[in-house]
């Protein structure tokens, strides 16, 4: 297991399907990398417009939710320090049914434009939600077609119950305790989706408990065959 003590990344490309996917699993890592000089491009495939949550108590509806979630995503990016957000315009809960050639072509275009030193996405098959798995599969498929020497490393998020049993322990574990402020602000930005006060223990959770819960982010480096 490798603990990233100092990021030497030049440009990180994050490809995830929904607003809020970045908040719990990668926001601390991104804030840390940005503080160390990395650029970050976040390509969010959808606006999560089919999400079931409409706020607590509800303040959104099916018509207003996409615009609300876009604003929440932008707020989360500001909290993290991300300046390059790409909203890709695909449809929520249908990534697995998108035309693969079109989806892959959009991802290939990003790779050519950004030339990332690292890509972060979901580990296909081990990320619970069909959109997560389909997003990760498209990223892996597209990068896998590149010549081996031109493939950027891919760090994958996984959280299915069997992920460690099948994949082993994560080989990259980032300590992001110093960046908890940014991470919690990222989570709280998505107020239509989370009761952040409950996540944070209604303000009663001690700093040590927050560090234990949110202070490390885990990734599996994808091994191309």
What would you say this structure looks like, in words?
The protein is an alpha/beta fold. It has one domain: 3-Layer(aba) Sandwich (Rossmann fold). The protein is built from nine helices and eight strands. The protein has an eight-stranded mixed beta sheet, sandwiched between helices. The protein is globular and about 50 Å long. The two termini are 20 Å apart.
Tags for this entry?
Rossmann fold; alpha/beta; 225 residues
What spatial form do the alpha-carbon principal axes imply? globular
Distance between the termini: 20 Å
H and E order: EEHHEHEHEHEHEHHHE
CATH level 1 name? Alpha Beta
> What profile does the largest beta sheet have?
8 strands, mixed
CATH superfamily: LmbE-like
* Mean pLDDT level: 93
- Work out the number of β strands: 8
The largest sheet has its strands arranged as 1-7-8-6-5-2-3-4
Uncertain ranges? none
Q: Per DSSP, what share of the residues sits in E-state strands of 2 or more residues?
A: 15-25%
CATH fold name, please? Rossmann fold
Count of individual helical segments: 9
- Architecture, CATH level 2? 3-Layer(aba) Sandwich
Helix content: 25-40%
Please give the domain count: 1
What is the C-alpha radius of gyration, as a whole number of Å? 17 Å
Class per helix and strand makeup: alpha/beta
Compact description:
This protein is an alpha/beta fold. 39% of the residues lie in helices and 16% in strands.
Question: In terms of topology, how is this protein built?
Answer:
Elements: E1 2-3, E2 11-16, H1 21-25, H2 27-35, E3 39-44, H3 65-80, E4 84-87, H4 100-114, E5 118-122, H5 130-144, E6 154-157, H6 163-167, E7 172-175, H7 180-189, H8 196-199, H9 207-214, E8 216-221
Parallel strand pairs: 1-7, 2-3, 2-5, 3-4, 5-6
Antiparallel strand pairs: 6-8, 7-8
Helix pairs in contact: 3-7, 4-5
